[in-house]
Amino acid sequence: MGIVKNQSVKNLITTYSGFAIGAINTILLYPHLLGKTYYGVVMTILATGSLLSAFINFGMPDTLIKFFTAYKSEEDKKRLLGFALLTPIFSGGLFGVFGLIFYRFIQDYFAKSPEMDPFVWLIFVIAITEAYFKVFFNWGRIRFKSVFGNFMREVFHRILIMILLFFVYLNKISTTNFIYLLTAIYVLRSLIMMRYAFYLLPPKISFKVPENLTRILKYSSLILIAGLASNVLLDLDKTMIPHFMSIGNVSVYAIAVFIVTVIEVPVKAMRQITHPITASLLNSKNWKELETLYKKSSISLYTVSGFLFAIIVTNADQFYDFLSEEYYISMGIIVLLALIKLSRNTLGIGGSILKNSDYYRLLLVAAFVTVILAFLLNYLMIPAWGLYGAAIASMTSFFVYDILKVWFVYKKFKMQPFTIKSLYLTLFLSVFTLVFFYIDFHPNAFWGIAIKSILMTAIYIPVIYFANFSEDISLMIKKLIRR
Which of 303, 255, 283 is nearest to 426 (CA)? Predict the structure, then answer.
């Protein structure tokens, strides 16, 4: 667990730094400088582009993780790397042709949001750029190097976007030019990630097809479909909202999603290093250490994310005092979205176990069920209940997806992530959150959030330390006390 702890902590710091910068952009700069409509345009471009990138990379980022350590010869590894580089070019070209043929249809999809018309083509630029970024990001991870890649993914582009937003404030660039330059930042980020990936693992590329090509294509195809579940669940609601409602609602919903995203940071930070380690443990059939990692990752993530869940949910109402009234959203929606993020942490490395095992086909079943469910629920609930319907649809779909993954891992490996401590932690978090939900310590938003958060921290840390819910978290607290 040494390398996991080391890089997880570094990734956690990097990710929270990115979140802090993103918070300034999302809450203070975007709403006031771009306005509700053009902020919605930006979010729609990024969400839809991210959704399409999963098709274009064709599952190759995860294919690199699974097969690179399984190959023994350097020649096979070179062939795999070459295949990973060529796949997005081919699939991206197909999507480009598709986009040209059906461009008018795509514009008609956003008929209720005519502000999207000049920028629809940027969706495809973002999609291809993001597809390659994910390939190069995992290129580094197969060398167990995730910190720089995580910095590029979480911090780099947010700093540059902040600079662009200040240029908008100074009237140096227009809103339209901002959107084009934002796209250029994503392209630059991918190029830098490529340079770093090639530095870690020079591309001695072989354009011959890798050994076991049929198995690779089958795995990539299924991972593509399975990966769509995560991408669809993350971005489908924001992509469908402008079809049924004005695009300004995307910005309102996106702010709510961003607020609760802080809860998901721990699992994102740990996943960067546990994913390749999980693949290595599966390839070496080290089942005992795999199960230990499964349970430890679950309870550690639950302990940290549970605290973040309580902080977000109990302070969300006062948090909206920093925004204008047009961005306010029901606290019920905040709670639903927060529960989604909390549930993802409780799974630990469950998704990685399935994805890197010989049972990865089961992800196809989970993905197929979830994607259909998500589409139907969003299609029915957004017109009926607006943003509340989008949140209910997302929460239901995510829960189904998570339950299926836990069930499949248990059936095939006789492992599950939960212990009796998971139950005790759930009971404590429920009481802890409910008590502070109805208490406000100061009418001023800043002081109210600060006082409540400090008091909650002062209670939570001693409880989890002495209750020893997570041995790893308790050990970290103990080391901090000694220092």
Answer: 303
**Are 7 and 146 contacting, i.e. CB atoms less than 8 angstroms apart?**
yes
Distance CA 407, CA 67 (A): 25
Tell me the C-alpha distance between 23 and 398, whole Å: 24
CA-to-CA distance for 68 and 85, rounded, in angstroms? 14
Whole-model pTM: value is: 0.71
In whole angstroms, what is the distance from residue 63 CA to residue 138 CA? 9
Write out the chain in H/E/C secondary structure: CHHHHHHHHHHHHHHHHHHHHHHHHHHHHHHHHHHHHHHHHHHHHHHHHHHHHHHHCCCHHHHHHHHHCCCCCHHHHHHHHHHHHHHHHHHHHHHHHHHHHCHHHHHHHCCCCHHHHHHHHHHHHHHHHHHHHHHHHHHHHCCCCCHHHHHHHHHHHHHHHHHHHHHHHCCCCCHHHHHHHHHHHHHHHHHHHHHHHHHHCCCCCCCCCCCCHHHHHHHHHHHHHHHHHHHHHHHHHHHHHHHHCCCHHHHHHHHHHHHHHHHHHHHHHHHHHHHHHHHHHHHCCCHHHHHHHHHHHHHHHHHHHHHHHHHHHHHHHHHHHHCCHHHCCCHHHHHHHHHHHHHHHHCCCHHHHHHHCCCCHHHHHHHHHHHHHHHHHHHHHHHHHCHHHHHHHHHHHHHHHHHHHHHHHHHHHCCCCCCHHHHHHHHHHHHHHHHHHCCCCCCCHHHHHHHHHHHHHHHHHHHHHHHCCCHHHHHHHHHHHHC
pLDDT in tens, 141-192: 776 666 787 788 889 999 999 999 999 989 899 888 999 999 999 999 999 9
Q: For the chain, give every domain's residue range.
A: 2-482
Q: What percent of the chain has pLDDT over 70?
A: 81
Q: What's the pLDDT band for 433 if we cut at 50, 70, 90?
A: very high
pLDDT in tens, 65-101: 676 766 666 666 777 777 777 777 776 666 666 655 5
Q: Which residue has the tokens 């204008």?
A: 324
pLDDT digits (tens, 9 = 90+) for 386-415: 889 989 998 998 888 888 888 988 988 888
